[in-house]
Write a structure and sequence with these properties.
The complex is a heterodimer of chains A (394) and B (444). Chain A is mainly alpha-helical and 394 residues long. Chain A folds into three domains: 36 residues; 74 residues, Cytochrome Bc1 Complex, Chain D, domain 2 (Orthogonal Bundle); 203 residues, Orthogonal Bundle (MetI-like fold). Chain A is elongated and about 110 Å long. With 444 residues, chain B is an alpha/beta fold. Chain B has two domains: 172 residues, Periplasmic binding protein-like II (D-Maltodextrin-Binding Protein, domain 2), CATH 3.40.190; 198 residues, Periplasmic binding protein-like II (D-Maltodextrin-Binding Protein, domain 2). In chain B, 49% of the residues lie in helices and 11% in strands. In chain B, helix 4 runs antiparallel to helix 16, helix 9 packs across helix 11 and helix 19 runs antiparallel to helix 20. The chains are: A mainly alpha (394), B alpha/beta (444).
């Protein structure tokens, strides 16, 4: 018995190892994205996110080469006060610093017996000096990427700095109205919700009706119709962009929310109907027969029996459709475009065409991940149940 | 327990309905570029001037724009267009994407944007759908000689070159050069000697990273074209573009060998072949300016200056970073973004006339949005690096367009693939033969 248990545990180790490995593969890049989005832009461009918790650059080197004379605080020699910004601004980088370290002071070597530091160490010391003199004090973490992304700041510094200096770009007013700036992620969040909620609700509603009809209404050609609908899943979305754009142009639906809802509804329904029919078809026939015997109409049966019973399937469909629409760029780009930008569109436009400003992209990506994560965690217990919907006859 | 999901469902439905109701008003809210209060005042006070400028466009006229710019670039474009928007009350409906499929979809669906800012090849692609620039009020005299030549398709002038950049330049750090005792080379031989001297000093001369996702290789193609301009001259490059010279010609082979000697050797380029292939082109720009410097030079287009400044805010142009024109290059490699009109509405007229006017050129320069071939831009640049770039631009012996951009039919990607294959240790003749086949097919 005891042996069995040990064997069991031993047998599980490889599985656990693989699972943990898979989790790491998925989680590490996301963690990197999160950390990057919280770092100041200069730090992002000069060092990797994994260095974020390493000790501040240059302090060890400073202690090794300089602290014995200048003191740990840098103020031990009064006429060479290393916390004086004016003095330090003359040695911004290793080049200038090394030049003075190699030169003589009062006809004595500057470093006396200590060897002159290597290039890399000198560069690190220069960074440390800039920090203790207050020339270049960078926080380790900052929310400025998130603020810039939310208000759609497109300048060269940051929203807070520009607003403080009064040099804000054209479309920034430095008040709460910036939250509704059409270039910002804040406004895009609202637009994304406006697109996603109806585009999730409509296909599920229709699919629930259709699934009930295919499963429990007896009519001619039922199976043929169902096969055709399921077969429609093979139509690639990209192929229909041009014809539907043309149709929408005639109907005046281009650039409207209605157009996007209809498009997503159309493309979401074949799979949704397939899943709903299989789920509803697996419910026991007796249930419906006794309901009909008791005088229930189809509508009553649908509303009072099917909807509550089909909740797992509806929830999992909801998650699928929600994530698909929320993360969709193509349809939103073609049918909504830049006039009512959704989050995916806005994310791709945070960086310039040459990729500059990508620290904003990391923050924007995280903002757009928030809601799907909430939805997923809120509905996740339905997720697996729903995936299996209709797979096993109950 | 069972009722809870139902309630959530009802709530979601309610929220959807509420938001939809709000959606109606949200879509009608004016975009930020429109400033209703500001539009009327100038129109009333400067009526004659505004009439001239607006070409009959009235307040509220909409212009849809499609371009590849985004982020800071979009902000600069807005600055440039703001005077016109204010004077005429135009409502801009901008869309930004780097996906050409969107432009193609829009045009095929019969709903093209009024104005697109795109590449020169689209002028040929949409030749029969575009409106001629001279008919829209643009004046060819407003541009420096030769600037609009590639925009004339079969005798029709279909595009305005709005934003130009020069590619035949090398960025370096004057401070580092001075410390090591290097001087800026003026001939290719001097550059070659300088590179060898750097190697002898134990410095790495080049930062050559070309990684750029599925466009990996474009940085290399720029470098190769500059070498061609040095070794063979501009006519040779134009002959590649028109197909007279095949892409596997001996001159091209020589250029690849010159490039490969540097790009694949860790002594000459950071990381050797693997470093070149796997370092992002933006990271490659940073390397000569990091502390301590990882390389001495990087060959990159004019935009690199902005990237350096954004990463190392404390560096100053002229002392800490600067560029020189590739020594010995006959003419410059330059690229433009082209403005094309799918509509001839009054508002489009106004926009075309404004951007091709001296005032439009001057405002383009003031916004520091790269270079403008519009004569009005000269003397109006404020950014020191743009002033120097403009000098090289105006003094150039001539321009050659990017080979990859100018040959249609996917030649650009074939060229990149040849570069990547070659750097990966593939056979040069095979790599070039592949690109030459695409070139021959495209120009048949």
């Amino acid at each position: 018995m005891n042996r069995d248990r040990i064997n069991k545990i031993l047998n599980q180790i490889p599985t656990h190892f693989i699972i943990i490995f898979m989790i790491l593969i998925w989680v590490v890049p996301t963690l990197g994205l999160l950390i990057t989005s919280l770092r100041p832009v200069q730090a992002v461009n000069t060092s990797g996110w994994w260095t974020v918790l390493s000790p501040p650059r240059g302090s060890a080197e400073y202690n090794q080469y300089c602290a014995s004379c200048h003191g740990v605080e840098g103020i031990a020699i009064t006429n060479a006060d290393l916390t004086d910004p004016e003095l330090i601004s003359r040695f911004p980088r290793s080049l200038q610093l090394l030049a003075t370290l190699r030169a003589d002071i009062n006809s004595q070597p500057h470093m006396q017996d200590t060897p002159v530091p290597e290039d890399q160490a000198a560069a690190d010391i220069a960074v440390h000096l800039k920090k203790i003199s207050g020339i270049d004090e960078q926080p380790r973490f900052t929310f400025s990427n998130y603020i810039d992304a939310l208000v759609g700041y497109r300048g060269t510094r940051s929203y807070q700095k520009d607003c403080a200096a009064g040099t804000a770009p054209l479309d920034i007013h430095c008040d709460t109205s910036d939250l509704l700036n059409p270039r910002g992620m804040g406004r895009a969040f609202v637009n994304s919700l406006l697109v996603t909620i109806p585009a999730t609700f409509l296909p599920i509603l229709f699919a629930a009706f259709a699934g009930y009809a295919f499963a429990w209404l007896d009519f001619k050609g039922r199976f043929l119709l169902f096969s055709i609908l399921v077969g429609l899943q093979v139509v690639p979305l990209q192929m229909t962009l041009v014809p539907i754009s043309r149709l929408y142009a005639q109907l005046g639906l281009n650039g409207t929310f209605l157009g996007v809802w209809l498009f997503h509804t159309g493309f979401g329904m074949p799979y949704a109907i397939y899943l709903m029919r299989n789920f509803l078809g697996s419910l026991p026939r007796d249930l419906f027969e006794s309901a009909y015997l008791d005088g229930a109409s189809h509508w009553t049966a649908f509303y009072q029996l099917v909807i509550p019973l089909a909740m797992p399937a509806i929830a999992s469909l909801g998650i699928f459709q929600f994530l698909w629409v929320w993360n969709d760029l193509l349809v939103a780009l073609v049918f909504l475009g830049g006039t009512t930008p959704v989050m995916t569109y806005q994310i791709s436009n945070m960086v310039t065409s040459l990729g500059a400003g990508w620290q904003l992209l990391t923050a924007s990506a995280f903002l757009s991940m928030l809601l799907p994560m909430i939805v997923f965690f809120a509905l996740q217990r339905y997720f697996v149940r729903g995936m299996l919907a209709g797979a096993v006859k109950g | 327990m069972k009722k809870l999901p139902l309630q959530i469902f009802a709530l979601v439905l309610l929220a959807a309905m509420l938001l939809t109701a709000c959606g109606g008003t949200a879509t009608e809210a004016p975009p930020a570029t429109e400033a209703p209060a500001a539009t009327e005042a100038p129109a009333a006070t400067e009526a004659p001037g505004a009439d001239d400028l607006c070409m009959g466009a009235v307040a509220g006229d909409e212009v849809s724009l499609l371009y590849q710019w985004s982020g800071q670039e979009e902000e600069r474009l807005n600055q440039i267009l703001q005077p016109l928007v204010d004077a005429c009350g135009l409502v801009l409906k901008p869309e930004s994407t780097r996906d050409q499929a969107l432009l193609d979809t829009r045009v095929q669906a019969g709903t093209p944007p009024d104005i697109a800012f795109w590449n020169v090849t689209q002028l040929t692609q949409y030749e029969d759908k575009l409106f001629a620039m001279d008919a829209l009020g643009a004046s060819a005299d407003a541009y420096i000689p030769g600037a609009i030549d590639s925009g004339v398709i079969n005798g029709k002038w279909l595009g305005l070159p709005v934003k130009s950049d020069i590619k035949t330049i090398i960025w370096y750090s004057p401070v580092n050069f001075a410390a090591a005792g290097y001087t800026v080379p003026t001939t290719w031989e001097e550059l070659d000697a300088l590179v060898e001297k750097m190697v002898a000093d134990g410095n790495v001369p080049w930062s050559m990273g070309i990684e750029s996702g599925d466009a990996t290789g474009w940085t290399g193609s720029d470098f190769l074209q500059d070498i061609l301009l040095v070794q063979q001259g501009p006519e040779y490059v134009m002959n590649i573009i028109n197909g007279t010279v095949s892409y596997d010609d001996a001159g091209v082979v020589q250029a690849y060998e010159t490039y490969g000697k540097w790009a694949t050797d860790p002594v000459y380029a950071v990381g050797g072949a693997q470093g070149t292939l796997s370092t992002g082109f933006l990271d490659a720009i940073h390397k000569p300016f990091s502390d301590p410097a990882e390389a001495m030079m990087v060959k990159q287009s004019g935009f690199a200056g902005g990237e350096i400044k954004a990463t190392y805010a404390d560096l100053e142009f002229g002392t800490d970073y600067d560029f020189f024109v590739v020594p010995g290059a006959r003419g410059l490699q330059g690229g433009s973004d082209w403005m094309m009109a799918f509509s001839d509405s009054a508002a489009v007229n106004a926009l075309v006339a404004y951007l091709s006017s001296p005032e439009g050129g001057a405002n383009w320069a003031k916004a520091s949005f790269d270079l403008s071939p519009n004569k009005g831009a000269a003397g109006n640049y404020t950014d020191p690096s743009l002033i120097k770039k403009a000098e090289a631009f105006y003094n150039s012996q001539g321009f050659t367009p990017d080979i990859g951009d100018s040959i249609p039919g996917g030649f650009g990607s074939a060229e990149w693939k040849a570069i990547v294959d070659y750097l990966n240790g593939g056979d040069l003749a095979t790599a070039l033969a592949g690109a030459a086949a695409v070139q021959a097919e495209a120009l048949k």
